[in-house]
Amino acid sequence: MIYFSRYTKLYALISALVISFGMYSIIRYGYKVSIDFTGGTQLRYTTAKPVGSEISSIAKVVSDHKATFVDATHTLDGGLVLKLTNFDDTTEQTFRSNLQEKLGNGLKLASLETVGPTIGADAIKKTLYAAGLGIFVILLYIFYAFRKMSFAIAAVVALMHDILVVLGMYSIVSFSFGAQLDTLFVTALLTTMSFSVHDTIVIFDMIRDELQKGKMTDLSDLSDYAVTSTLVRSLNNSLTIVFMLFSLVLLGGSSITFFAVALLIGTITGVYSSPFVATPVMVWLEKRLNK
What we know:
Layout: H1 8-28, E1 32-33, H2 35-38, E2 40-46, H3 55-64, E3 68-74, E4 80-85, H4 92-103, E5 108-115, H5 117-146, H6 149-177, E6 180-181, H7 183-213, H8 219-251, H9 257-289
Parallel strand pairs: 1-6
Antiparallel strand pairs: 2-4, 2-5, 3-4
Helix pairs in contact: 1-6, 3-4, 5-6, 5-7, 6-7, 6-9, 7-8, 7-9, 8-9
């Protein structure tokens, strides 16, 4: 058995440093927000041959049309996806002709989608509602399943820890590599919430079973036993996900790269938080309540 409970201050320090670094990035740099939330126009073009990385030429044409350039990505089939704000879609044909002159790649319009600022604000509101509802339901479920409020609170603390880590680290990725805060990131964040609680429940279930057996009386030793017993299972399960996500980051294409990055961050912090955040918090609460 490994005595993980002896190093709770180290876990707290690591979490505090990571979250503080991420929060600084959010305050200092913020995010590169997608038109999914701010409103704008997405143009998808097919091309006779790959466009390449002619971002400056594209940005110049966008500027000439009094629009704001947000992002340009290339699809796996060689197409081009542009995201713009303040774009008058009635002049799309003229815009395409000017873009054709710059790129010379036989551009053809595949789709044009416009998202208004109202829809973007509504998406943010629904995201917050979904996250809040998820946290509340998880709190009720764990309290019902384990009949201990300390278990429920500890699970939610670990969940909030994971959310803060993902938000902070993604801000750094957004600033460093241009990742956008979009609906795919929201999907990754909500997925992280479910994954985080999954491992926590496994550890808490073993602690409850051992408490019922009555063989171990010290809660710190019991938590160490539970974490040690489930650690290999959790690592084996999580590493398969990490390897898959890492492959997607390297080979998955630009449209899902940062989605995979967000999921990778969430998976890693979820594996960490269950034994090293949720379990120590639960032990601390139980000892405080049973004094």
